[in-house]
Structure formats: structure tokens, C-alpha cells
Amino acid sequence: MTTPTPAWTLKPGEPIERKALHEDFGGRTQGGIGPSSRSANVFVFTDPIAGEKHGYFDGWMPDGLFHYSGEGQYGDQRMMSGNASILNHKQQGKALRVFQGARGTVTYLGKFEVDDQDPWYEADAPETGGGAIRRVIVFRLRPIDAAVQPPQTSLARLLDAAKRNPNKDQVQELDLEQQLTERTFVNPDREPYEAERKEAALVQALGDYLRGKSHKVGRHQMLPKGETRPLFTDLYDHTAKLLVEAKGSVTRENVRMAIGQLADYGRFLPDATRAILLPSEPRQDLIELAHSQDIVIVWPAKQGYGASRPGFAL
Predict the structure, then answer these.
(1) What are the DSSP calls for the chain, one per residue?
(2) Are 125 and 56 in contact (CB under 8 A)?
(3) Looking at domain 170-307, which CATH architecture does it have?
(4) Taking the CB of residue 142, how many other CB atoms lie within 10 A of it?
(5) Cα–Cα distance between 96 and 141 in angstroms, integer?
(6) Comparison of pLDDT for 130 and 24, the residue scoring more
(7) Is the CATH number 2.30.280.10 carried by domain 15-162?
(8) What are the tens digits of pLDDT across the range 96-147?
């Protein structure tokens, strides 16, 4: 004999044992998304603190909606299984119920629905275990009986600051010592590679050198219109209008990556001279590659810094 499903009486803010929730209403007992075949519910579980360490910035955003990263630990996420159950919950006549926490006692946040106009978007995040960067689905959930909360994650607060000028690309000056990187908002739990530590040391040394010549130096945070993750330049010399991207080793891969990053950042600083900072002088073909894109390469030398372009001096 099938046990009848009880009426839903849980109110936003109330706790419940996840085991008891599934015993009464069905749904998966593990994982972040639990569509039920026994009741008209899709259960969603979120752990913002744990998620942020892995590049998932779930929570309230400046648009007043709750943003929730989909399921799928490896490879690009696809709109199937639990993800499809969220997207199609209204067509299937199911309530979307969000809980904070994933194990043991969880707290009911309230009933939500996917936004009609813009139900989801794509973002970058690493595979489980710190693997390759892949595409993840992020749902935009509109509260039905939940009270809208202020932005709480570091990404949400950054986007909140950008909300004041929603139709413009956001470019903000930062201190050189503010060690935010794009990795901070994509794969924050990963330890920096040795090359990244070398890059940071190269940037700091160049910044000290330029300050010693009475130059004003800093860096920029950029949020292109429509993007959900910020970009960060390595160094900008305001005095010389010089945009610098540093790489920790002299390889073709690094030079090619730096060229792409300078092309991206340079859209927002069109008057800047572009330069790649390397730990030593590169081989001639890499210099020619950089020059073909109107980029100069600089490196530490005994007399200060060497440069690939004759007559160029820091």
C-alpha cells in the first residue's frame, strides 16, 4: 500500500532533516537536484560556502533572483536529467523548492520558479577535483514566497557594484597589490601554479621599478557588458599608458596566451601600448610574433629591463 503524500506545510526559514524530507515527498537522497516522482516537487539543494571554493557562486544576485549552478561534475553541463527538471518544472506542474545545505539538516529557503525571460546562462567553472575549466549552466530563479536577500557571495557583491551602469562595460582601477585574478572567480580553490607565482613576482618587481621612476602604476578590473565573471589586468602604467601582461615562463604557449589576453583587455584601454613581461629574453620567432600584433616584449636585465623593440625603454 502506497503511503499518501502529506500536505506541504514547511515555511521559508524552517529546518528539516533531508532524510525526512525525501521519506515524505520523494526525490533523490543525494546530489544537488532531486526531482520527485512521488510528489509534484523538484528539490534543489545549495551550499554557497562550499560551492564558492569550486567556482560555483550560487545565491542572491543584484537582479533580485537566486542564481543556481546546475548538475554535472565533469565536462560541459547539459540540459538533461536534473537540469532539465529545473528548466521544465512549470510545464510539468511541479513546484521548485530550494534548500540551503545538502546533508543532514537543511533549511528551506522557499518556493521559486525559473525566470520566464532569461531562465539560464552559461559560466565557466572547473571540473570536480580541480580539473579542466568547462561550461556550466546557471539558472535564474525567481522567488515565489521567499524574501529577496542582498547579494552575499564575492561575485554577487562585485556585480552589484556594476549594476549602477548596466549598459556600459565596467572598468575599475585597482591597486597593484590587490591580488584578485580571473581564477578567483572561476577556480578559486586551486593552488597557484609555480608559473603564476613567478608572474606575481615579476609584476611586483616591475611595479617597484616603475614607481622608482615616479610612474603611477596599478591594474584594472573589467566586466564586459553581458559577462558574469570579471577580467583583471596584471599591470597598467598610467604615466606611460602601458598595459602589461606577465607570464612566468618563456614558451610559445605563454606568448600566444598573453597576446590573446592583451587583445581582450586592450579593447577597454585603446590608447595603451601593449607589452608582455617575461622572465628572460625570448627567442627571435616569439619576438616577431609579438611584433606582428604591435606588442613589445620586456624582461628583467642588469640595467633594469630589456625590450624587444629598439628605442623602447621603461
Answers:
(1) -PPPPPPP---TT-EEEHHHHHHHH---SSSSEEE-SSSSEEEEEE-HHHHHTTT---EE-TTSSEEEE-S-SSSS--S-HHHHHHHTTTTTT-EEEEEE-SSSEEEEEEEEEE-SS--EEEEEEEPTTT--EEEEEEEEEEESSSPP----SHHHHHHHHHTTSTTS-EEEEE-TT----GGGGT-TTSPPPHHHHHHHHHHHHHHHHHHHTT--EEEEEEE-TT-SS-EE-SEEETTTTEEEEE-SS--HHHHHHHHHHHHHHHTT-TT-EEEEE-SSPPPHHHHHHHHHTTEEEEEEETTEEEESSTT---
(2) yes
(3) 3-Layer(aba) Sandwich (3.40)
(4) 18
(5) 9
(6) 24
(7) yes
(8) 999 999 889 999 999 999 999 999 998 887 777 667 778 889 999 999 999 8
Check: CB of residue 232 under 8 Å from CB of residue 181: yes
Encoded amino acid at 198, one letter: K
pLDDT attached to residue 182: 47
Q: Give the domain ranges of the chain.
A: 15-162, 170-307
Distance CA(88)–CA(178), nearest Å, equals 42
pTM: predicted TM-score of the whole model, two decimal places? 0.67
| Mean pLDDT taken over the chain | 87
Q: pLDDT band at residue 155, thresholds of 50, 70 and 90?
A: confident
Q: Distance between CA atoms of 258 and 261, rounded to whole angstroms?
A: 5
Decide: 254 and 247 in contact? Cβ < 8 Å.
Answer: yes
Q: How confident is the model at residue 35 (pLDDT cuts 50, 70, 90)?
A: very high
